[in-house]
Amino acid sequence: MTFAIIAYLGGVLTIFSPCILPILPFVFARAGQPFFKSTLPMLAGMAATFALVATLAAIGGSWAVRANEFGRLAALALLALFGVSLLFPRTANWLARPAANFGNRLNNKVGMGTAPTAASGLILGIATGLLWAPCAGPILGLVLTGAALQGANAQTTLLLLAYATGAASSLAIALLAGSKAFARMKHALPVSERIRQGLGAAVLAGVAVVASGLDTRVLARLSYTSTSAFEQALLDGLDTRTPRETGRVVVTASKDGGKPFLSDLPIESDAPSLDGAVQWLNSPPLSRQQLLGKVVLVDFWTYSCINCIRTIPYVRAWAEKYKDHGLVVVGVHAPEFAFEKNVDNVRTAIADFKIGYPVAIDNDYRIWRAFDNSYWPAHYLIDAQGRVRYHHFGEGNFAETERAIKDLLREAGGEMTTAATVNPLGKGAQATPDLAHLGSGETYLGYQRASNFISPEGLLADAPRDYSLANAGLNEWGLAGRWTIKAENALLEAAGGGITYRFSAFDLHLVLGPDRNGKPVRFQVTIDGKPPGKDHGADIDPDGNGTITATRLYQLVRQSGQVEARSFEIRFLDTGVEAYAFTFA
């Protein structure tokens, strides 16, 4: 229930997001109408339809994608008709009398004539819900991540509905605030007609924006600086893991008989169970009981997640520095993609990252659910008495986390020096990101979460198609050659195919895998049509040549000079490659 409230508040904030702009004409075309007979049914239809469509997307499968595509086309046609009937009611009636009359019945002479019906508002709301593509800020991103992990279920639908209801609430407030102005204007016929025509033009413009994809390709880029900071603050302030005092902290006496140290870290909860891993690497299975008396850092990660990869040097350094002082680090590998469930792949990644601490393979998400976790990476600190005393979600805050480690080790009776915090030098993909110049965000290539796709043929789910490239704007991508786009990835069906992306970041990474038989796939990268030279990443040479030998994240670009928008292209010389996601730093 707490997170449903957070989802609702996240939806309320969407009115300040650029991604709400394309649907505003559809909503405000009902302004001035009776709220309960017109506006409320429309907003309810919009919220319910969005929740249903987003839930179906969590199910996956080509049928869901095609159903959504047909639904969007029908919604575009309906709303275009609605706009035409507002802008040119006589012309529309003359050109297509039955269709125009239907459109006029739907809009009920918006604000200028007969009373509207609840049915007309509901139908327009359903059409609007089919077209709405909100920017995935931290709150919606958290809901969608949970849906991707757990599939469609009642909880997912409830959270999506809470989010959409929040957005509908803020729109309702805006409409109520403007209703008085519309009420004054409707008595002046010339002004009334101009308002009607203006609304019609705005509706048609909204249809054009959505039909051309500008709502997701352009406006989504602006979301980086819109409501994300507010949403993250909301998550932090209303975290379901709010610290709770479960009793007085009991500490052991210091070795010299002096006053024991007592950390001011709150007691959040009893430590959840570590049972449920399908396998343990670098260690036999560890239980909560076995770890009593030790300070435990639980690190949730997955090996192709760039934020996790950049966090590993710090976790590795803490494990080494404090192991003799009573710290035990437990990595919990919870997969995001299906290929990350392959234990051999995880074992290879552990060797590549030089991880020596125990790793639990949480393929069934049993430990993930026990901790009620929702993030990669996520850190939980458990004290010597088996209680969670600290947590941090996402990349960063390394100094704060290390101070918490020291506090709990001292509280457990360990001797802590005032040595400086660790500052590991990450190489390749593990290097510290240049967040100040980051202008591109994570982009998935599978249809389940794909966005900003611009190949003119359009995305076809679960079937081969020949794709071609188009001029890409910033943060847009396309395919060339014969590909099959699946739920999680894009599969190359013939050698010579490629991927392009227009990006702005210091580093560009791409999660790639060889063909199904494990045969290596050769590729070549160009930047702005030329070999990368000094801008090559750790996994290619200056001429742009590289080979895919395992399914993992590949660093393909590291700009040597000033960060600016660049056009990236990768061409595969062999068939069978699987491409999953772009990440940037």
Can you describe what's shown?
It is a single chain. Helix content is 40%, strand content 17%. The chain has 585 residues and is an alpha+beta fold. The chain has three domains: 2-235, no CATH class; 260-430, Glutaredoxin, CATH 3.40.30.10; 436-584, Galactose-binding domain-like (Jelly Rolls, Sandwich). The strands form two sheets. Strands 8, 9, 10, 11, 12, 13, 14, 15, 16, 17 and 18 form an eleven-stranded antiparallel β-sheet that branches. α5 packs antiparallel against α6 and α8 runs antiparallel to α9. The longest helix has 32 residues, at 154-185. The chain is globular. 47% of the residues are buried. The model is unreliable at 108-116, 215-226 and 240-258 (pLDDT under 50).
